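Late entry, written up from scratch paper. The run itself happened at the end of the previous shift, but nothing got recorded in the book at the time, so transcribing now.
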Amino acid sequence: MIAIGCDHGGYQLKEEIKKYFDEKAIAYKDFGTYSSERTDYPIYAKKVAEAIQRKECDLGILACRSGAGMTIVANKFKGIRAANFTNEEETRQSTADDKINIAILGGDFITANQAICIIRNWLGTEFKGGRYQERLQMIEEIENENMK
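Output as recorded:
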């Protein structure tokens, strides 16, 4: 199950992603926003990150204008590894190395077609494990020290 959310700047992109998911029978849960009316991105980043923390969803996608704000908020949650993806190669490398569990997409910088390609690469990339798992354990230790 994929949690998906956006603010007003990412609304159109989110709707295109949902169409793709519907066509491919990919299960998702939409956490809003549900229109292009102005709203605040932290609301939706929090909802998606918490859905993953609660194990209600396995992965998440967030969309806004640049991706920066959503990335900042999502990474405030323990166990979340969010990355702002702008191309396919970056997506493959980040996911293979860092097991990204929330993909962030900036609607002002990528098209819907590019977003779909990024998502396909994100979902289709295997985590390398090994020394990369050791690094994730280091991240978890840092979270345990700093996220009370």
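Residues 87 and 114 are 7 Å apart (CA to CA).
(Scratch paper discarded after transcription.)
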